[in-house]
Batch of 2 targets.
Target 1
Amino acid sequence: MTDLQLKCDLSPLRAYVQDTLLAGRTVADTDELLLSGMLDSLAVMSLVSFVEQTYALKVPFEDVVIENFESLEATGRYVDSRGADA
Amino acid sequence: MTGLLDHALAHWATTTPDAEAVRFAARSFSYAELNIAAEAVSARLIREGVRPGDRVAIHAAKSFDTIASVFGVLRAGGVYVPVDPAAPKARIKTILRDCGVRIVLADPRRAAALDGMTFVPVVAMASALAEEYEADPVPRTSTDLAYILYTSGSTGTPKGICHTHRSGLAYARMSAKLCGLRRSDRVSHHTPLHFDMSIFDIFATIEAGATIIVISEMHTKMPASLSQLVEAEAVTVWYSVPFAMAQLVSHGALDKRDLSSLRVVMFAGEVMQPRVLRDFATHAPEAELLNAYGPTETNHCLTARIDHASLDGVTALPIGLPDEGIEMRVAHDGELLIKGDQIMAGYWNELTRTRDAFDGRYYKTGDIVTRRVDGQVMLVGRDDRQVKLRGFRVELDEVERVLSSLPGIEEVAVVTDKSGETLNAYYAGHPSPSELLGHAAAHLPSYMVPAEAIQREALHRTSTGKLDRRRIVEFGDDRSAA
């Protein structure tokens, strides 16, 4: 486990990605999730709605970009940045 | 220029060596660089024992390396066989065995996934590009096979569609001319290599001496990033399945982008909803809109030039008129038949299937068409997408067209349930199931109205971006699967 110094709790997101989206495959927080073969576009949409529900925020379309969701860590950073807006 | 698919690359590498051939991940590759990389791959393959006519699989996510590999295989006299980078292992194995692949060129992730498939050697693509051995040119002719594209077909067993240098080049030249491609063009490479639209992206672009803008797999999944890329790379010619454009319209934040660089917007592979095209076209008001039609067996062979002003209030777009060099015939049952130089040589290792696919020199598309009074061809549906319900013949595509004309519907698939007697509509979008069924009842005869509308977050798609109706039916009873 890397020390990410994130404010949000990544564990529900990690569990969802590993157990639901990747059928039990383990991923590191910095692994590239979007490279082909890992998450398809359907899974990306599921990931975004999971983030919305779990962290109680609305993700506008313009935020659904590679740099915000390319890894668990990037997603956590994005959630943190949104927390700062609130 | 002569009759081989890769000769244009050599030509431009000599006459305009510094011109941009490929852009990938914000990096630029000149014609000279692409040519050198293709030579390296070719030399490596020859050193590995590849002989003229040998099949070489390419199993990798799109990049500069995959384009260099395509040309490298051809230079070595080989036949390239692109394998879906997301395909499950069993399917990869079936394809590699079916056409007796000699070597696989793979990126690191795919090479690792192929570990244990010992019947065929795997060469790391990056190492092939760095090859220093030099090989003598291989004698070739335009009737040699150039590539094999595997499609599932309606039965689910993959069939290998074989194209020669001659058929591929006939298509590349026709389509380059159709789009008026010139050296200053920046052409999107959106579809994966195993999908026939990539033949335009790569070979028409290089034929014209223009620039291929490679769109990474990541960008294809992130519409807002994709629209950023189109703007940043100043793409002038766009080519994709309609779904990719629908995603850009619904999730691409297009209001914040400037897409005015687009000169040609071409789409194929599925039926385009006029509503989606109208919304897209408002962001590219100057672009010429081309609805391209054609199965992998023929390459795209009919084109409709769509007038922006014609998009209001229509529910279906024409597929237009035969392209240059194409002769068409409509059989008595409405089936579209196509003849021309750009048609496939046949299915790999399937003589009977090949024979059955043709009527004389005409390829039987399996698509049912009608002609409008102005001569424009209209697609009615697939002969295998026609079902009989309560004695009526129903075109499932027609039902889909009507349902998707309801504002707010993003995608819709109309399928028969397992009994084959009930229509169900699966869809994504904000209208409720009862609103959708109400819309259907208002516009369709009762026997064409689905029994049930099932709302989903999104619908299953194949790796080429087409609706995956088999999976939609398969998971049809599982309401939790999205």
Target 2
Amino acid sequence: MPPQKLTINNTVHTVDADPDTPLLWILRDILDLKGTKYGCGVGYCGACTILIAGEPARACQTLLSDVGTDPVTTIEGLSTDGTHPVQVAWQEVDVPQCGYCQAGQIMAATALLASNPHPTDADIDAHMSSNICRCGTYTRIREAIHHAAASTSTK
Amino acid sequence: MSLNRRTFLQMSALLSGGLALNLYDLPVAVAQSGRPAPPDISPRAFVHIASDGTITIMAKNPEIGQGVKTMLPMIIADELDVAWSTVHVQQAELDESLYGAQFAGGSMATPLNWDPLRRVGAACRQVLITAAAKRWNVPESECTTSLNKVLHGTSKRSLSYGELAADAAKLTPPPLASVKLKDPKDYHIIGKSHTGVDTRSISTGKPLFGIDFTTPGMLQAVIQKCPVFGGKVKSFNQAEIEKLPGVRHVLVLAGSLSTDPVVSSDPGMEPGIAIVADTWWQAQSARSKLKVDWDFGPGVTQSSEAIAKRAAELFQAPPANTIHATGNVDAALHSAAKTVEATYTYPFIAHATLEPMDTTASWKDGKIEIWTTSQAPGNGRKMVAKELNISPDDITIHLTRTGGGFGRRLANEYMVEAAYLTKQVGAPVKILWSREDDFTHDDYRPGGFHAFKAGLDAHGKLTAWRQHFITYGVDAHYASGAGMGGNEFPSGRIADYGLYSTAMPLYLRTGPLRAPGSNTLAFVGQSFLDEVAHAAGRDPVEFQLELLRSTDGKPNRLHDVLAKVAERSNWAKRSTTPGRGMGIACYASHLGFFAEVADVTVDAKNQIKVNHVWVVGDIGRQVINPAAADNMVYGSIVDGLSQMAQEITLDQGRVQQTNFPDHPVLHMRQTPVIDSYFLITDNPPTGLGEPALPPILPAVANAVFAATGKRIRTLPLARSGFSFA
């Protein structure tokens, strides 16, 4: 298979790898975008959550050959200086403990807020319950999503 | 030897399998004596002040999510008298001659460092004062400091720490034991909430973690181990694997497991097949093509079913060991007005840190450099030195941020694997375990079985307590994390008490998991106590408060948190609606005293919704970083609830749970509202990694009883017919 073009965080990359390689490992080991994390490898834990054409997806379950021309957004694509409203909210609330799942949580939260700018607790619980936090920071994640919702609505 | 050193040696004993409960008495004893031992650390190693005024403070311990990379430097910064916003925190390398013991375990960072690190900050501040006094040619006693400056009161002169840095660097810091510490009312950093120093980098996906580390020429490795612990490779399709894309090396690991009759939590390298490739996915893909003929070894005959059957048999026999006995428990039970009996069981569970085990190592010219996620890297250095037959001085260890520890990374075999492989292949190697490797080759929290019998007198007062613990080991030499001490409540509070054990052999790694011992003993002890209170027709809070009430006039810390949580949860006025109930439990562990109330709803399908949890903790006179402390409490509750639904089982020696769907972590929608409250008492500050966890399991089980009349005596919940909604 010829090298593939991927649009990641608004930059086009040409990748020459086995088309069956999960996007997770393309991001991490070929493109050196280490923010997207390996947690379970079976699409369950959500540590590798990214956006493909704006929709949340599991990078560990998305093969290189499946990506096509759809734009991919990773945690690095929200902002590199932490100024995206969801990143700001995560800092204000000081969500993380170990922090390993949080890139996936932030991407899932970003997708939620894009489709539902003012989610209720129940909306947040329903949407975010497919991402696990082994440290148990859920209380703070919920709070940070409300923060982000409030900050974007006042701008 | 200093406190740090001595305690670290005891810690090592704990990690290698002993249950050194006495460890936890030591720092408090020293702290309470009012004579802090001079710390065996070098103050200058912790603080670097540049001439432009930049303050760098070293974070000494591994950061596994417990917040020490922020909290420990805060302690130094306050006594140094600098603005926190001017501080840059840097992770220290492993160098215990400079920093003292560097490990994450036992909730020990606060008790071991609270006093020494305040002294480090104060000593560095004193050096800056000395430098300024010399510059001005005034007595030091006329100088003071205020936020990054030394001031001379009478002349109104000031010099910034940056301006004094070069002079101060030439001076010798005063002995730590001699420095004057701040009055706590003057703290401007300690006791205020500060955002984690890595929070911004985490939220932008910066490469902070062990898995993210990379170095030029680095190869990546997976190791296929036998599905049965300790099994060896007989033969496999090596030639085929070597031809697969990206594969550079395929090696058989003979392993270096110790052959003790009781398996250590960190027994060395397991045998297996290492596949070293250009990328991790290539190594992992090649692994899926392996065809291996294994020598499964002695573990292959083990099954959870057979273990449970054997435990039931052992309950019928007299106990093999007496852990602690006072009075005559059998006679007291015989003459009791009423007796209560129950048997409790809990399973093996896995640590399952979200970042799997990983380390990168680079061998060059007889020396090795390591980037690791270990919680106890000092032990890892010893293991690497032994495995490679090199001097510990030829091993440099860098500590990366770690995606969760929970006790798993007190073991270091993944560090040894990386070190072994880099030396073998002559290139830097990152070892990264797959999630399945992690679940099937953990050092599991051991399961256990407890048979209780309690006696009550005619007034409903507890008079006798007999407990027979069936566990793992050989005689009184228990598997790691599978022992218990003799001071388990209500030991010492009733005259006739007997705690006994019988151990059965196990060929599987076990080890400490967050609040080791306590995370199971709280469940069985506090659940059974609740049964006894109900059998006595008494309120569980009042029943336990009576047992805990001090007889010497001094406050009893567990009593006080229990009374407080009853008050905060409005226990006395709790609802008695069928299907809804509140349960209470308390437990002291890792120097912290915690009481918790859970409010639950149980539906017709026995699905439990935990609505609300109240937590009251006593960790002494100072909560160092309050918002982070609350976060640790939230996490402890979620972790404890998760533990209630998890189990690891064995069939033909193989662990049957291989990924998170088989061994779930609580989801956000299952997380209760958590009320975290700290009762401030005049005691030395202690840690929070562990002690908030143990009481939540019995609090929920007791709440389920209040709601349904059904007792949860067997974990996981599914084996008692329950689940989380």
